[in-house]
Amino acid sequence: MKTKKFLLQEKDIPTAWYNIAADMENKPRPILNPATKEPLREEDLYPLFAKELAHQELNATDAWIEIPEGVRDMYKIWRPTPLVRAYGLEKALDTPAHIYFKNESISPVGSHKLNSALAQAYFCKKEGVTNITTETGAGQWGAAMSYAAKAFGLELAVYMVKISYHQKPYRRSIMQTFGAQVIASPSMSTKAGRQILTDHPNYQGSLGTAISEAVELAIQTPNCKYTLGSVLNHVMLHQSVIGLEAEKQMEMAGEYPDIVIGCFGGGSNFSGISFPFLRHKLTEGKDIRIIAAEPASCPKLTRGQFQYDFGDEAGYTPLIPMFTLGHTFSPAHIHAGGLRYHGAGAIVSQLHKDKLMEAVDIPQLDTFDAATLFARVEGIIPAPESAHAIAATIREAQQAREEGKQKVILFNLSGHGLIDMAAYDQYFAGDLTNFDLTDEEVEKNIAGLEKII
Ligand SMILES: *Cc1c(COP(=O)(O)O)cnc(C)c1O
Fold first, then answer.
1. Can you give the residue range of the structural domain that contains 319?
2. How far is the CA of 367 from the centre of ligand 1 (A)?
3. What CATH number did the domain enclosing 359 receive?
4. How many A from CA of 372 to the centre of ligand 1?
5. At the N or C end, where does the chain have fewer CB atoms within 10 A?
6. Tens of pLDDT, residue by residue, the chain (453 residues)
7. Ligand 1 in contact with 383 (CB < 6 A)?
8. Total domains in the fold of the chain
9. Does some domain include residue 154?
10. Is 264 in the pocket of ligand 1 (CB under 6 A)?
11. What stretches of 234-355 adopt beta strand conformation (E)?
12. What is this structure's pTM?
């Protein structure tokens, strides 16, 4: 019988995270203070983030950073995750390619986000923090942070974009089940929220507003820090456990990937699966292709510009060097809510600029075609976000068939879609559309960016 799953044991959970910045010849440019345009120092980040996380954020010298025992212990709840050979998908595509996926959907909250949420909660707890805040759009990050906060005995306040709070009640219930306080944003609990509600009483909220509220509450509450689920360097670092495990599992399978693929929102699961492999390219000159799969309606890597920009819509965060569509870019309401983000993290952006990786953009209907095929042949209903990686994998596998080449493809299944069935319903009813962006629409918000680079 052919081996379907490659399984590691608890003792194989990585003992150190991999920090790719240390191995990059061109380091990511520094994060800047928006007022002075001076690089931020570690201490500048202390009011918002736990000190250890601030240190990790700016660390471009240590390739390996020890995973504390307390975090590894929590990882044991569901890690190591399986590496699976997608025989069903290979057969359906009649491709000579060998397709593998790393199944991050088996985490208690159904996505990879818990890998970083637990680490962030741990470092906050360790320095005596009692309360944390965060924001969530579609709810995946909020769900992960809720469990992580509870696990380390922290109180969590989640600002959830008001429209999602009402439209995605199950993610809200999940957060409440884990004991978090979930507040629809904009709210009356902060100055930023009250201001917006005074001006626009019916405003349904945005991620930008939710970030402002979460940051304001963190700064004003004693012993309170703010947490973020993607984009930042320390989040990419924590997610490296995905690729480090996959590296060992590919060895068990006796293969090495020619192509590694991840879907792309702010870059955390993509970095997680790909950086440990990209490391072989940077340090040993290994020939490997790394592909980020982003939505055609939010194409920062394929059509955006490399420039300093804010991390949030409202412009409250430091300036980050990134491929961006402009922080005021408002992506179409595709169902892959976790990919509706205007920019990419600093490390990924530098790697992309240096042509060490590639990006493709995928129209919404292709992602649901891919998701449905995958569900039927592999038995797992993927998150709409993860379906972008599946669609990109299918393209490569079809290409391999046309060329008659036997390639090895590895992709990350970042999450399952069991709480996204309303999106599948719309797809089956023929109510989903693609969103084409004209060059004018892409350039409109980019044109407003200050030309710092
Ligand atoms: C949040 C999320 C993403 C996108 O975020 P990244 O930081 O780009 O990984 C992708 N897939 C799932 C399942 C998510 O929850």
1. 5-12+67-110+234-446
2. 15
3. 3.40.50.1100
4. 19
5. N
6. 799 999 999 999 999 999 999 999 999 999 999 999 999 999 999 999 999 999 999 999 999 999 999 999 999 999 999 999 999 999 999 999 999 999 999 999 999 999 999 999 999 999 999 999 999 988 999 999 999 999 999 999 999 999 889 888 899 999 999 999 999 999 999 999 999 899 999 998 888 889 989 999 999 999 999 999 999 999 999 999 999 999 999 999 999 999 999 999 999 999 999 999 999 999 999 999 999 999 999 999 999 999 999 988 778 889 999 999 999 898 888 888 889 889 999 999 999 999 999 999 999 999 999 999 999 999 999 999 999 999 999 999 999 999 999 999 999 999 999 999 999 999 999 999 999 899 999 999 999 999 999
7. yes
8. 1
9. no
10. yes
11. 259-263, 289-295, 305-310, 319-324
12. 0.97
Does the CB atom of residue 205 touch ligand 1 within 6 A? no
Is there an atom of ligand 1 within 6 Å of 339 CB? yes
Give the angle 353-355-359 at the CA atoms, nearest 5°: 85
Kind of pairing between the strands at 83-85 and 259-263: unpaired
**Residue 286 covered by a domain:** yes
Let me know the angle formed at the C-alpha of 322 by 318 and 326, rounded to the nearest 5 degrees: 80
Domain-embedded: residue 417: yes
- CA of 53 from ligand 1 middle (Å) equals 20
Neighbours of 354 (CB within 10 A): 11
Nearest residue to 158 (alpha-carbon basis) of 129, 180, 130:
180
Contact 294, 302 (CB under 8 A): yes
User: Does residue 122 form part of some domain?
Assistant: no
